[in-house]
Task: structure prediction
Amino acid sequence: MRVTVTRPHAPRLTATLREKESVTPLELFFDLVFVLALTQCTALMAKEPTWEGLAKAMLILAVLWWSWGGYAWLTSLVDPEEGIVRIAMFGAMAAFLVAALCVPEAFDETALLFAVAYAGVRAAHIVLFAIGSRGDANLRASVTSLAVSTAIGVGLLVGASFADGLTQGAIWAVAILLDYGGPAFFGVEGWKMVPSHFAERFGLIVIIALGESIVAIGVGSDSEVNAGIVAGAVLGVVVCGALWWLYFDVVALVAERRLSKAAPGRERNSIGRDSYGYLHLPMVAGIVLLALGFKKTLGHVGEALEIVPATAMLGGTALYLVAHVAFRLRNVHRFSLQRLLCAIALVALIPAAVELPALATLGILAALLVVLIAYESVRFAELRDRMRHQVAEG
Result:
């Protein structure tokens, strides 16, 4: 009688290519660190509600967004829960967390620590991509070019930590432009992705940003709950719900379908770079700016907003809408005039917002977004229904 000896299963130590299309629990866990980064950017602006404070927060957000997006590309290629990738993801989370903690003083006392932590996040990303690109010459060439642009960007941020004022800000801006320009300069032909997973990752980060703005409503209310606070909270949820509707009702579904149907290689990767890597940044930035407006409104519902918070709330929402216009134009080559007009109207309301009670400004914002959604639902009812069903059937 032969006795079969079962050997214990040996864990995989190497990265394996992604097989599942859905987002994994580890990716969601990783995104929680980005939540802190968004919160810290809002906190920086709330602490320093000036044009300089807004500029600092947006520069930091741009840097952290590009690093987060890099991991979205990475985990669309390799399975983050297999082999050494799982351990490396936790290491990247730790570095990302340190960078997020440094955000409030990223241009001052913790500038060097922020740059070093950010370097750790990007280094882990490059190493994991190099592992995932083994046996694929085109992908390896793309990873090498990314490593070059990353090294330059990180080096500039380290150098910026020893500068201050406008010089420091200018170095940050150059670092961001060079880093973002890397894929455009070196090409995108060699990259790979799972379209449905990739689109889902970016959709989830929009939800996370909206969730952070909801948190800002609660944090902004530092007094006892009264009728004004309740009204402000309800209106804040209406605004966040409207932003969710504008993205997820049709636009995100159609964009995902367009990405999936694009030819693998240059066409698909160009859409991924432009529509998600580039154009989702102003969407998230707009939500972060809106969160500052929420925070200041709930703190003083009966008083008028100052010019910077008013611009953040109305201008941030306008930025979100303009990004939607560009997003739709890039994917389906259709121009959304009504969303552009709504964005223009919001910007035009900024002078009035510094005179009206903050609660009234929030109410006008909510009303405009509801009217926009109602108009689109009626005006494009047949097209909307057809596109949603085509997406579901496809």
